[in-house]
Every structure is written in C-alpha cells, then in structure tokens.
C-alpha cells in the first residue's frame, strides 16, 4: 500500500501535473493540500475518470484539503479540528480531513504557516498544533493503524533546510514550532522520511523566487507521521523530486510511504 501527500498549490492550475503524477506513480491514497477551491468547484470527475474516488473540504481561494483513493471509497471520519482562524468572525479554515481508507486511518492536514512572526498568525499556528496533538492522542489511544500527513509548515531540525541562517526568523523553524512538532514524535509517532534519511538533506519545498529550485535551496515541511501500528508495516519512504522540475509545477514535491499489507 502506497500513501502519498502533495501540496498542489491550486488544483485547477496544476490539474494536468496532478493527473500526470497520479497516473505515473499510482499511489493507493493521495492526500492533497492547498486545493484552493470551494467544494462545488472540485474536479471529482477528472479523478473518477482515472479510477480515483475522492472526498474534499474546500475553501474559496485559500487552503482546502482532499483525499483520493484508487478504486476504494474513502469513508469520512472528521473534517476540521474545531478551531477558528486568526481573524475575528472568520470561522474555521479548511485545513483538516480525516478518513478510513483500506483499513488505515488517514489524517490529511494543511498546517498554518504562522508568518509574520510574532503575531496573531503565529499564535494561531501554535494553537492549531495543540489541537492537532489532542486529535492525534485520541487516535493513538484507539490503537488503529494511522497516518497523519500533509504540509506541516515546520522545518523540524537544521538538517532539514538548505541554510538554517537564511530561515532563522521564519515561523517554520521557530523553537515553539519545532517543539510542538517534536511533541508529536515524543508521543510515539514515527517520521517516515526522517527514518530513511537520518542525516537530513532531503527537501520537499522550493520557493518560486530567487532561483530556489535551480540552486536547490529547499527545505522539508511535508511530513508523514505513522502510528506504532502502522510504523511496523513501513517499507520505504521518499520524495518525488522530479515532479517539481516540470512545467507549471507546484512549489512542493509529493512525498510518500510504502506499507506492507
């Protein structure tokens, strides 16, 4: 079983690249972030035509998450974590979608960026991570095979960024952000990419600006965290870096894990 995550950065703008990746790599489950469309604009028929069933949680112009499954119907468990956005009266943003797929609990997330730091957006990021930890604890206590994956907007350690100095003031690698992420691991979740790349140097994001892709100035913010029950089945994990090089690509590359049945 192969489970993947891909921050697509606008599903309508990247649809040809997204379908190309799905057909070339054929993950069993594909979790998408930043679909940037309202629910009624999600192109479910495009995915059905190549064999993928989908559920999604959209939002106009921003955020949005979706779960695609190859020949399997995802059974929705929960959408949202019950936390409002940083603006007064904004309501909850479309950042979390949880489903049962092929006997695995799949929790797809797009964690707040948190910039500018300090400020209300950074406070929101930390509050969101605390809510996520509460939900992850509930799932772990159920002792089900589970994966929490997506764009965490956290650079866990200095080894996960091309230049710690260049990113030192960014919300993605503030001590509070890193500490909140480390607490997930301390609770017993396994970082799949880090397991196979303990020395770091693996990036999942390259900015469109300043020739970041061409200079390989990237960092790792897309993560796949496995519950103990699922970590026992871990075979491989990786990044489809080549897809970042294609025309009109997302600024993220897909990440994935392979699991024993």
Automatic annotation (TrEMBL):
The protein's matches in InterPro entries, at most eight in alphabetical order, are given as:
AP_endonuc_1, Endo/exonu/phosph_ase_sf, Endo/exonuclease/phosphatase, ExoIII-like
The EC number of this protein is 3.1.11.2
Is Ribosomal protein a UniProt keyword of this protein? no
Please name the Pfam families in this protein's record: Exo_endo_phos (PF03372)
Domain Endonuclease/exonuclease/phosphatase, first and last residues per copy? 4-252
Cofactor(s), names only, from the UniProt record:
Mg(2+)
Q: Which keywords annotate this record?
A: Hydrolase, Magnesium, Metal-binding
Q: Name one GO molecular function term.
A: double-stranded DNA 3'-5' DNA exonuclease activity
The family database entries (SUPFAM superfamilies) matched by this protein are listed as: DNase I-like
Q: Which family does it belong to?
A: Belongs to the DNA repair enzymes AP/ExoA family.
The protein's name is Exodeoxyribonuclease III
- Source species of the chain: Parerythrobacter lacustris
